[in-house]
Amino acid sequence: MPFFAYKGRDGRGESVHGVLEGADSGAIAGQLTGLGITPLDIKPSASPRSGSANISFSFGKKKVTHTEVLLFSRQMYTLLKAGVPIMGALKGLEDSTDNPRFAEVVRDVRVSLDTGRELSASLARHPEVFNPFYVAMVNVGEQTGNLEEVFLRLFHHLDFEKFMHDQVKAAIRYPSFVLVTMALAIVIINIWVIPAFAKVYEGFKAELPTMTKVLIAFSDFMVVNWFYLLAALVLAVFGFRAWTKTAAGRMRWDRFKMRVPIAGPIVLKATLARFARSFSLAFRSGVPVTSALSMVANTVDNVFIAGRINGMRAGVERGETVLRTARETGVFTPVVLQMIAVGEESGALDDLTNEIADLYQRDVEYDLKNLSAQIEPVLIIMLGVLVLILALGVFLPIWDLGQAALGKK
Fold this sequence. Notes:
The structure is a single chain. A three-stranded antiparallel beta sheet has the order 2-1-3, covered by helices on one side. It has helices at residues 25-34, 52-58, 66-81, 86-96, 100-114, 119-123, 132-144, 147-204, 210-244, 247-257, 263-284, 289-296, 303-317, 322-329, 334-346, 349-369, 371-408; strands at residues 3-9, 15-21, 38-45. It has 17 helices and three strands. By secondary structure, the protein is mainly α.
């Protein structure tokens, strides 16, 4: 998603500025509102991590992982619940972390707090570690006086996100491994196996079937041009990564991932589960619906779904119900839409969206358990076609060659 530079004023009237990532300026305005900042100017900007200063700052240093932020949230809850002052809690976490990069971040947050900034504003100085949703939740905790409770909710939220991310990786790991193995097998057969058979066929000087000629020609092509094929593969990988970093490329790729047979629906359900859990947390913490939708759009890690969520936000701002805007996205099932309707009517939308997250989570777990049963028939067919081609092209001519050898005798 694109980045936007903003200028605004916080709750104390002080001027603030920075760079945030969002679908459009309206989404950025919603994020700022959730952070307690009144936006004054929002305009497109380059990524804050694209500058040389940032590159030199992080070069050669270990990155802060999702698990470290998760543990940070849990430890902050425990220390604050025990009555430890926030400065002491941050000092203890700074000294106990094994990651020098994260220790620098915590130290900077502590120094920023010491200068009079709020904790949320101090965390916002490190968007590569604490995303806007995290910062907004901390800001809500500061405003409501439930900071330790918010840290506990963030811990559970991050733990859920990690679980869903691992589930999606598990969904694509098995088919990816099988496809890569088949590709390597094809390369080995074409570079080493078929040329050995070709020498045998050439010695008998027999007429070969068309399939065998095609296989030998393709094998010769790979043997002669393997370097160029390898270079083309490397360029294709780097080109694909560069394409997915563009706004249009990322949108198309994220949309394509959800249309892949078998694995696509699992990715969609996992993404919607993250959305529902994030929205439930934000709404339960007292964030308005429009601001919650803006913040949640940046947590789903899918530009296509984020665009649909921002469309929901725009609809709610026009006075439409959450149910109607959710139905217009075209990504929610009828059961989920019914749960949203009940949540709106009963005033328990946060509880119902949390139930939706549980529903999608159970669906993902069930689909993963049955993933191998769904994929195996497809893989068996692909392997069967590969074996059939090799049998027709490599082994079938042996019968003719045997007859030719007997004829020479």
